[in-house]
């Protein structure tokens, strides 16, 4: 643990081994070992997988947002040369996915693998076509003749909640799939009545797409020898994909093996299971031939899972000194037509209501959260899961209160931040916040911004006729929570994870895990953790992951859980193997195991360099000369570790500077700073890469990205011409400072951080935009803010 009173301290400069932990590889900025292959074009993505006799799948999809399926005629498609099969829902026996939250407020709805009687969004699949090549499959998919009977479209939450609106699902009254009153407080009415200042807002964030480089994709093949369906799939959650296939197709879990190749980005889109992969698996099982499906960009933008379309109606009461007195929120999430498996559509309202107070001390709180069904694609837990939105809400409220009270907005934040001496802090939401550096990160960010001359640059830009502004956001990121997730009451509750560490006869190490890094650099960081424990070089440690036949059950990678849970499990397993190595060395060196140290590839008796044996020699003896060892040490060098932590909060403060062109109203990100604290940093280079990627996604949500639909539920952002994703040219350099508050709820002291960049950026950018407009009455509470929004608002105010 660190030496300072608050438990935090500046970490060692990038690249230096982490000495505090006593480790030699923790804290080292080792190059990502998985990157070289990718850069040389040697990645192996699902679309790279080819099999002899492989067939290709394409889907016949609905052109309407809401319609009854009157009849499907597949004869023309089937008659096309090279078409091997066409299956409808009836042909497959009507398989479906059912995600369940075990709460009375939740209405379970089935997501059919192929729609049978009714379609609920443009792009919903009604038939799968299997053909010799992908182009032929697409042509044949278009040749499937469907007789549609159009239904009135529920295109948005306003339409869905209008009195007497048609129900997207007959079982979901008022189109509400879940309605949760999470917190109530009888004192709030009096608090609001008496408060010197009450601020409020109608905050909104647009529907966005995760935009992985490779979209969803799979190759399903029947293994006759093992009598097993093998599904190679671009997924973050191989075991949940296996469970989904087994449940939907009614087969034993051991009859399915899911293997994830390289994944070209997941970002939450791939932590749920799609229907296309199940239909492809069903087709391969029937045809006993390999079948591959690779989503194209249009399908990815229109027919996969989206994220983050939310509205918040929030009021907050503040005292004259800036202290927040009460908070009341009504949260509505447009979750589209279905509940995604296994998390359910409640994941966003649940997260929003539970975590809204965030890093601030809120004494009285009430929150209602709803998931509203519409005729749009379902949503998945996109990176950050409601936290980009709730941070935006709280950070806007801080600014509004400061405005109303005539106080400095950063002072208002300080007045409310949970501070050292108050940890562990039990929030009004029932959450226990472990030690963090909320205040320290804000202090450092403010100093850094001043020292780096941002205010001067802002003044200069303003003097030259531009609009320029600086914005901040403070937030925490709950990471690595295991079975404590059971509070949500999902029928499939994510929890602990497992790791298996074994040393082979040459002294090299294989680690298999139930987590699945798909771009986060686990091959490197997990190797650093295990190498430290075993006293070997990280280059000797190989990670095996993403294969359901390798780990008993694992929960994959999402929710910034891997370093804490998977890394903790690997730490424990490696510790057990290290114990065994120490005992074998002690036996050979005639010493006490407690005196044996493992480092630099040697087992050595402490203080006696001559009394040492190479670890590779211990491995050789353990395997090839086991008879020289006493009975309990004879059975190889391996151990299983598992870990189920309660969760730990990392935290950060972001600062952004934007410049708005007064003629074109284009908003340019000019400067960006992140002060982050993810506890013990295992690999600073990887953490910084994660931060930069996350900030880019969050800034994109604030400035560019939105999926649009018209009132008929037709998508208007079906290509990357219409859906604006930033390139490197739009993102400014991102400076990063680290603080380190080691977590007591993590074997390594590390806290997760994989979503933080995305969580903090929208609020910081939005506050910067509002600061740039501070000489006008215009303020925005929604994202993205587009040049057209700025132009229209300034024209309206007569200040353009
Ligand atoms: N790390 C570290 N020290 C710490 C914390 C983390 O060295 N104190 C390292 C970890 O070892 C890991 C990486 O940073 O290599 C991220 O760790 P963690 O915070 O545990 O997050 P996960 O590995 O569980 O990744 C999930 C997170 C999420 S939720 C999304 S969404 C996301 C993200 O990661 N999707 C990504 N980053 C992504 N990056 C890529 N390239 N692709 C995605 O799809």
Structural notes for this entry:
With 800 residues, the protein is α+β, with helices and mostly antiparallel strands. It is built from 20 helices and 32 strands. It starts with 8 loop residues before the first strand and ends with a helix. The N terminus is likely disordered. The structure holds pterin cytosine dinucleotide (MCN).
**Biggest pleated-sheet summary:** 7 strands, mixed
Strand residues, percent:
15-25%
Overall pLDDT level: 95
Ligand types: pterin cytosine dinucleotide
Total strand segments = 32
What is the terminal-to-terminal distance?
A: 54 Å
- In DSSP terms (H or I, runs of 4 or more residues), the helix count works out at 20
What overall geometry do the principal axes of the alpha carbons give?
Answer: globular
**How do the strands of the widest beta sheet line up side by side?**
4-8-2-15-12-13-14
Helix content: 25-40%
Give a quick rundown of the structure.
The protein is an alpha+beta fold and 800 residues long. The protein is built from 20 helices and 32 strands.
Secondary structure elements and their pairing?
Blueprint: E1 9-10, H1 35-39, E2 55-61, E3 67-73, H2 75-78, E4 83-88, H3 89-92, E5 96-98, E6 110-112, E7 118-119, E8 125-131, H4 134-143, E9 145-150, H5 157-160, E10 176-183, H6 188-194, E11 197-205, E12 217-223, E13 228-233, H7 238-249, E14 256-259, H8 275-287, E15 291-294, H9 297-303, E16 310-318, E17 324-336, H10 347-355, E18 365-373, H11 387-405, H12 409-416, E19 425-426, E20 432-433, H13 438-451, H14 454-463, E21 467-479, E22 497-503, E23 509-513, H15 522-534, E24 541-544, H16 562-589, E25 596-599, E26 602-605, E27 608-614, H17 615-624, E28 638-643, E29 648-660, E30 667-677, H18 684-703, E31 734-740, H19 756-772, E32 782-783, H20 787-797
Parallel strand pairs: 2-15, 11-32, 13-14, 17-18, 23-24, 30-31
Antiparallel strand pairs: 1-31, 2-8, 3-7, 3-9, 4-8, 5-6, 10-18, 11-16, 12-13, 12-15, 16-17, 19-20, 21-29, 22-23, 22-28, 25-26, 26-27, 29-30
Helix pairs in contact: 7-8, 11-12, 11-19, 15-16, 18-19
């Amino acid at each position: 643990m660190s030496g300072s009173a608050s438990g935090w301290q500046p970490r060692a400069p990038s690249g230096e081994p982490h000495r505090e932990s006593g480790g030699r590889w923790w804290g080292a900025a080792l190059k990502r070992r998985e990157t070289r292959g990718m850069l040389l074009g040697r990645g192996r993505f699902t679309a790279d997988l080819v099999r002899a006799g492989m067939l290709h799948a394409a889907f016949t999809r609905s052109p309407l947002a809401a319609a009854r399926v009157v009849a499907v005629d597949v004869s023309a498609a089937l008659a096309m040369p090279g078409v091997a099969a066409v299956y409808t829902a009836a042909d497959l026996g009507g398989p479906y996915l059912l995600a369940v939250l075990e709460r009375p407020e939740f209405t379970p709805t089935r997501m059919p693998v192929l729609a049978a009687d009714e379609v609920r969004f443009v792009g919903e699949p009604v038939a799968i076509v299997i053909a010799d090549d992908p182009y032929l499959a697409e042509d044949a998919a278009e040749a499937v003749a469907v007789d549609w009977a159009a239904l009135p479209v529920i295109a948005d939450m306003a339409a869905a909640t209008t009195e007497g609106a048609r129900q997207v699902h007959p079982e979901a009254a008022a189109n509400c799939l879940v309605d949760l009153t999470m917190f109530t407080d009888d004192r709030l009415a009096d608090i609001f009545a008496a408060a010197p200042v009450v601020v409020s807002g109608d905050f909104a964030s647009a529907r966005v797409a995760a935009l992985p480089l490779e979209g969803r994709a799979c190759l399903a093949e029947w293994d006759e020898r093992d009598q097993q369906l093998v599904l190679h799939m671009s997924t973050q959650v191989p075991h949940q994909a296996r469970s989904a296939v087994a449940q939907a197709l009614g087969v034993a879990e051991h009859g399915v093996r899911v293997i994830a190749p390289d994944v070209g980005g997941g970002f939450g889109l791939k932590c749920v299971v799609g229907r296309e992969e199940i239909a492809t698996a069903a087709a391969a099982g029937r045809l006993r031939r390999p079948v591959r499906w690779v989503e194209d960009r249009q399908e990815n933008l229109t027919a996969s899972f989206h994220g983050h379309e939310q509205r918040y109606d929030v009021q907050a009461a503040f005292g004259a000194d800036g202290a927040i007195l009460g908070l009341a929120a009504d949260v509505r999430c447009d979750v589209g037509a279905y509940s995604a498996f296994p998390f359910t559509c409640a994941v966003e309202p649940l997260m929003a209501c539970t975590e809204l107070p965030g890093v601030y001390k809120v004494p009285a709180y009430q929150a209602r959260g709803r998931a509203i069904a519409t005729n749009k694609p379902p949503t998945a837990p996109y990176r950050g899961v409601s936290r980009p939105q709730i941070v935006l809400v709280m950070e806007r409220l801080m600014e509004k209160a400061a405005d109303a009270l005539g106080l400095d907005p950063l002072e208002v934040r300080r007045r409310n931040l949970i501070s050292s001496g108050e940890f562990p802090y039990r929030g009004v939401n029932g959450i226990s916040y472990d030690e963090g550096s909320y205040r320290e990160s804000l202090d450092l960010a403010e100093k850094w911004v001043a020292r780096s001359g941002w205010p001067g640059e802002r003044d200069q830009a303003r003097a030259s006729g531009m609009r320029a502004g600086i914005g901040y956001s403070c937030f925490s990121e709950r990471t690595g929570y295991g079975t404590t997730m059971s509070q949500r009451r999902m029928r499939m509750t994510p929890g602990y994870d497992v790791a298996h560490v074994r040393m082979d006869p040459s002294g090299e190490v294989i680690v298999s895990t139930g987590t699945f890094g798909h771009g986060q650099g686990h091959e490197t960081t997990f190797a650093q953790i295990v190498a430290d424990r075993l006293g070997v070089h990280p280059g000797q440690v190989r990670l095996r992951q993403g294969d359901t036949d390798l780990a008993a059950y694992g929960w994959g990678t999402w929710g910034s859980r891997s370093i804490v849970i998977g890394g903790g499990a690997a730490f424990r397993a490696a510790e057990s193997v290290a114990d065994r190595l120490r005992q074998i060395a002690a036996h050979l060196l005639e010493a006490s195991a407690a005196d044996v140290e493992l480092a630099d590839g040697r087992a050595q008796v402490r203080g006696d360099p001559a009394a040492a044996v190479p670890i590779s020699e211990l491995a050789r003896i353990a395997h090839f000369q086991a008879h020289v060892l006493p009975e309990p040490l004879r059975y190889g060098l391996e151990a299983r570790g598992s870990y189920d932590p309660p969760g730990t909060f990392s935290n950060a403060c972001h600062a952004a500077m934007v410049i708005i062109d007064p003629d074109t109203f284009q908003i340019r990100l000019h400067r960006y700073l992140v002060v982050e604290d993810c506890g013990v940093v295992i690999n600073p280079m990887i953490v910084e890469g994660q931060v930069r990627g996350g900030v880019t996604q969050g800034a994109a949500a604030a400035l560019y990205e939105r999926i649009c639909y018209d009132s008929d539920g037709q998508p208007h952002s079906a290509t990357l011409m219409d859906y604006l994703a930033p390139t490197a040219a739009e993102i400014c350099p991102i400076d990063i400072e680290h603080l380190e508050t080691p977590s007591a709820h993590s074997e390594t002291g590390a806290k997760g951080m994989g979503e933080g960049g995305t969580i903090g950026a929208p609020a910081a950018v939005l506050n910067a935009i509002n600061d740039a407009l501070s000489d006008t009455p215009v303020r925005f509470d929604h994202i993205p803010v587009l040049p057209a929004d700025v132009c229209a608002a300034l024209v309206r105010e007569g200040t353009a």
